[in-house]
Amino acid sequence: MQNRRDYAHAQLRRNSLHRDPLTQFEFWMQEALDAQLTDATAMALATADDEGRPSNRIVLLKSFDAEGFTWFTDYRSHKGADLERNPQAAVLFYWRELERQVRIEGAVSQVSRAQSEAYFQTRPELSRFAAAASHQSSTISDRETLEQAVETLRETYPQGDVPPPESWGGYRLHPERYEFWQGREGRLHDRFTYTALESEWLIERLQP
Q1: Partners of 204 in the β-ladder
Q2: Are 205 and 14 in contact (CB under 8 A)?
Q3: Which alpha helices (H) appear in the chain, and where do they start and end?
Q4: Is residue 163 helix, strand or coil?
Q5: Is 50 helix (H, G, I), strand (E, B) or coil?
Q6: CA atoms 117, 163, 132, 165: torsion sign
Q7: What is the pLDDT of residues 129-160, one digit of tens each?
Q8: Got the DSSP string for 53-94?
């Protein structure tokens, strides 16, 4: 097992927090991007089915604004099935080099069809064909079957203009709670939560 390491990169004080958690997140995300961290937009997405059985996976954040945090996937996937029955989720960003984590929790809804189709057209060509050919999370006999499905679509759409399947699109998490975590020396980490109230955010410090 790897020895535990200490944290000494930075500190997080209440007087340095922005009153708006979205602005605070934007600041931290920009620092991660400026540091050229690998997959800075990667987030662990946790869902649960209607019986409370959890599952987790890594997805890429594609946009965020006052409406929420958006990613794209196959609605028929495991996460899609969970969200259909239990439209609540949590995401976690972990930036190891900055010794930071951000947790965000809230309700989830699908984005508009127009937004999904517009984003689909910005994806690399191979990614578009893969999304159109794959029934994400379902079983398949072998890789060759999947590759053949892609090849069939390429023959049908030789110009690369494969349309997005109706079963593919975006989700948006509407934040109800944020937690910002900054690693500190001796495991006395700085942790602050933002909890949505009617017209403002309640900011509280948590013990590490």
Answers
A1: 193
A2: yes
A3: 21-34, 78-85, 113-120, 125-133, 143-156
A4: coil
A5: coil
A6: positive
A7: 999 999 999 999 999 999 999 999 999 999 99
A8: -EEEEEEE--EEETTEEEEEEETTSHHHHHHHH--EEEEEEE
Place of tokens 């984005």: 111
Q: How far apart are the first and last CA of the chain?
A: 23
CA distance 93 to 58: 10
Residue type, 65: D
pLDDT in tens, 8-46: 678 999 999 999 999 999 999 999 999 999 999 999 999
Contact 45, 103 (CB under 8 A): no
**d(C-alpha 92, C-alpha 89), whole Å:** 10
| Integer Cα distance of 62 and 32 in angstroms | 15
Q: Which residues contact 164 (CB under 8 A, 6 or more apart)?
A: 116, 117, 120, 128, 131, 132
Fill in the amino acid letter for 200.
Answer: E
Known catalytic residue at 187: yes
Catalytic residue among 13, 14, 113, 187: 187
Domains of the chain from N-terminus onward: 14-121+170-206 (2.30.110.10)
Number of residues assigned to the chain = 208
75: its two tokens? 């609605």
Residue (of 99, 4, 84) closest to 48 by Cα position:
84
Instruction: Tell me the backbone φ, ψ of residue 91, rounded to 5 degrees.
Output: -125, 155
